[in-house]
Amino acid sequence: MRTDLNILGSLTPLSDIAAADRDLEALASLLETEREPSLSILVEQIRAFPDSRFERLLELIPPESRALPQLDLVTAERAVPRMQAALLEWRSSGADLESGMTLLARTAYPRLKTEDIKAQLDAVALQLRPNVPFNGPRHILTIFTQMMRDVHRFHGSSEDYYDPDKTYINRVLEHRTGLPISLAAVYMLVGRRLGLNIEGVPLPGHFIACLRSGSDTLYFDPFREGVLLSLREVMSIVTGTGTAFRPEHLRPPTAPEILRRMLSNLESAYGRRHDSERSELVRQYLSVLS
What is the mean pLDDT of the segment spanning 208-229? Predict the structure, then answer.
């Protein structure tokens, strides 16, 4: 297909597009037909739009548009001050893990609705509830992890391990796979809905989870299909990284600590993809949670 950015001249210069809805409608249609690299050129010029016209343009873009990922990046860049303030407010008002992970996902997927994440987690828990027993922590954990694996298909995968989408909770729930830390977080959030005290275990180089019940602590690995781990096996994970095991490795992380680790993973993931724009966004969020 011929790419001809001179078509903009038949509309009006890009600096004038914000002046009339009819020109925004024409631009929305143009975004549907252009391909790289001209699509990126258009989006780069759209960055200069005032907020009101940019928001109006977004209303005209169909949900399946190939331009949406790039426009989402522009939206995310504009939202940094507001989202930084939201993360600071989140941290100071109790730092609920689910809310924090949803905020983190919205830094990359600004159209994400908070209620959608809650509804998906509620649905998983609702299906699990009649099947999870209420006696014997080992039995409880075995059934819980089995259903998360076999019924809901949550699993770890080393394929494209550094895909940023394996950190964002909306994409983890959609694809049923993620990094060790994001899968553990999903187990924690679903377990919480079932009255299970599941906590994260932030080992060096790996992230697992545990179920605490009375005096019992049962360690398991959501990334490895929920396999149960003895304390000796947990210690071996640590020493396998060349780090001496210390009791504080078993200390449950706070929600801000989990988010900081996720953001560090994202910074590394985007760096591997040479995505400097998204790497910079991540660094700005790391700065308010450090």
Answer: 96
Q: Residue 285 has which token pair? A: 């969020």
What is the per-residue pLDDT for 13?
Answer: 53
Number of domains in the chain: 2
For residue 74, which of 281, 266, 219 has the smallest C-alpha distance? 281
On the CB side of 141, how many CA atoms lie within 13 Å of its CA? Answer: 24
DSSP lists the bridge partners of residue 220 as 209, 228
DSSP code at position 61: S
Q: Whole-prediction pTM value?
A: 0.88
Q: How confident is the model at residue 19 (pLDDT cuts 50, 70, 90)?
A: low
Inter-axis angle of helices 21-33 and 38-46, to 10 degrees?
150
State the alpha helices, DSSP H only, in 61-209. 68-78, 80-92, 97-106, 114-128, 137-150, 169-175, 180-193
At residue 98, does pLDDT exceed 60?
yes
Q: Based on the domain organization, do 32 and 109 belong to the same domain?
A: no
Residue pair 29/66 in contact by the 8 Å Cβ criterion: no
Give the domain range for residue 55. Answer: 7-78
Going by their DSSP bridges, the two strands 155-156 and 198-201 should be labelled as unpaired
